[in-house]
């Protein structure tokens, strides 16, 4: 089994992001950390999320748009005869960026399309205008991202 390895290759990072089912999003409410798993989509160095327009994460975004995100794939616990020799096989990505609320209707539709494509739907998409207007669509411009893998 291979050892832990840093992944800097953007193609490998994008592969992990395309395979991941959920993203763990971390942000800070003043000095208190907050993390939440979310459905997401990735396209052109940006993460797209959707949410209701109210709630704790929305309130935090409004005061502090800086975020950290993590996504992982191919995770597996590798057991051993002795518990202290257990290991984990994984590929993961951690990144940082700024969250931005999309206000423009067409940008919101684009973000929702990226999310739909991530979960295996094929476009073109038609979204009901009242539903789009009711949702909060968030775009995270990625400022930095790295990956790690272990056991490959």
Automatic annotation (TrEMBL):
This is Pyridoxamine 5'-phosphate oxidase family protein. It holds the Pfam family Pyridox_ox_2. It comes from Methanosarcina baikalica. It comes from the Archaea. InterPro entries: Pyridox_Oxase-rel (IPR024747), Split_barrel_FMN-bd (IPR012349).
């Amino acid at each position: 089994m291979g050892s832990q390895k840093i992944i800097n290759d953007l193609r490998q990072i994008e592969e992990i992001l395309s395979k991941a089912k959920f993203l763990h999003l971390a942000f800070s409410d003043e000095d208190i950390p907050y993390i939440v798993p979310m459905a997401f989509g990735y396209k052109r160095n940006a993460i797209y999320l959707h949410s209701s327009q109210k709630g704790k994460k929305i309130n935090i975004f409004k005061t502090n748009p800086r975020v950290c995100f993590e996504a992982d794939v191919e995770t597996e616990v590798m057991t051993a005869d002795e518990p202290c020799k257990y290991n984990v096989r994984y590929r993961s990505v951690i990144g940082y960026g700024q969250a931005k609320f999309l206000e423009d209707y067409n940008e919101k539709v684009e973000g929702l399309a990226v999310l739909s494509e991530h979960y295996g739907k094929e476009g073109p998409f038609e979204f009901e205008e009242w539903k789009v207007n009711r949702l909060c669509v968030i775009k995270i411009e990625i400022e930095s991202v790295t990956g790690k893998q272990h056991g490959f």
